[in-house]
Amino acid sequence: MQAIKNFFGMIMAMIYKTISGTGTEPEMISYFAITILIITVLFKLLTIPVTLSSIRTQKINEKMGPEMKEIQKKYKNDPQTQQRKLAELHQKYGFNPLAGCLPMIIQMVLIIALFGVMREPEHYMFGGQNIDHIAKNFFWIKDLSNPDPYWFGLPLINGISQFLFASMTMPKAKPDEDNPAAGMGSTMRYMMPIMIFIFARQYTAGLALYWAFSNMIELLIRTVIKISNQDDDVVIQKG
Q1: Which of 161, 169, 163, 183 is nearest to 57 (CA)?
Q2: Can you tell me whether residue 119 is helix, strand or coil?
Q3: Helix or strand run (H / E) with residue 191
Q4: Reduced to 3 states, what is the DSSP secondary structure of residue 120?
Q5: % of residues, the chain, pLDDT over 90
Q6: Distance of alpha carbon 229 from alpha carbon 205, whole angstroms
Q7: Sign of the torsion formed by the C-alpha atoms of 47, 51, 52 and 53
Q8: Rounded Cα distance, 27 and 29, in Å
Q9: Which of 25, 90, 162, 237 is deepest in the core (most CB within 10 A)?
Q10: Which of 116, 104, 108, 110 is nearest to 204 (CA)?
Q11: Quick one: average pLDDT of 218-225?
């Protein structure tokens, strides 16, 4: 993780140095804030293949959903056969249950790394120099290294964007007797925004800015893909 923090800090330092030499710093949004926005865009562009993989997994899961439910109902009293049939179904569709976790794992790794950079930007970005003279404001936020002072600012934006993201990516299913775990996606669709809201209230606003902007870009990318019907092209055909 330390290596990722150092890499994050190095890239952000390069971006900051580049844009700070372009002219007068905007009054409402600091170069520090612009650096966070730029690196967010860069990482979202680099992880587009992960987004496509996530869409592919979601589409496959939707296609095999009815067959999966039928197997679970038919073999509910025979767990061993049920697991074997489900494994065969996954193989039939080329479905990897772990693939859906990859985007979240990557996101969390980046968040943890950026959290370290935001806590000590003077260490990771500026080589230990004192940065009290550097502007770190973002519109209503005076210092992005501190939490947003308003719950209806970045915390609320994070909660809403997380809810929209979860609604777009998580299955809409209700629990039933044969498959109690089927409604887990519905529960997480409401729990995750609340957790992210609380998280954004407590930790640095720079981290909250990254998370909110990252969600917005992800929503935009997925919407564009959906409108252009490119998501149908990334689904692997049945084997």
Answers
A1: 169
A2: helix
A3: helix 184-202
A4: coil
A5: 34
A6: 36
A7: positive
A8: 6
A9: 162
A10: 116
A11: 88
Is 230:174 a contact under the CB 8 Å cutoff? no
Q: What is the pLDDT of residues 19-76, one digit of tens each?
A: 998 889 999 999 999 999 999 999 888 888 878 877 888 788 878 888 888 998 888 8
Q: Which of 158, 136, 159, 109 is nearest to 1 (CA)?
A: 109
Phi/psi at 52 (5° precision): -65, -40
pLDDT digits (tens, 9 = 90+) for 113-163: 888 888 888 888 888 888 888 999 999 999 998 999 999 999 999 999 999
pTM over 0.85: no
In a 3-state reduction of DSSP, which class is residue 197?
helix
Written as six digits, the tokens of 97 are: 């249950």
Contact 194, 156 (CB under 8 A): no
- CA angle, 183 then 154 then 118, to 5°: 105
- The candidate with the shortest Cα–Cα distance to 148, out of 197, 194, 204, is 204
For residues 38 and 199, give the distance between their C-alpha atoms in angstroms, rounded to a whole number. Answer: 22
Q: Rounded CA gap, 97 and 51, in Å?
A: 16
Q: State how far the alpha carbon of 64 is from the alpha carbons of 15, 58, 167, in Å.
A: 45, 10, 20
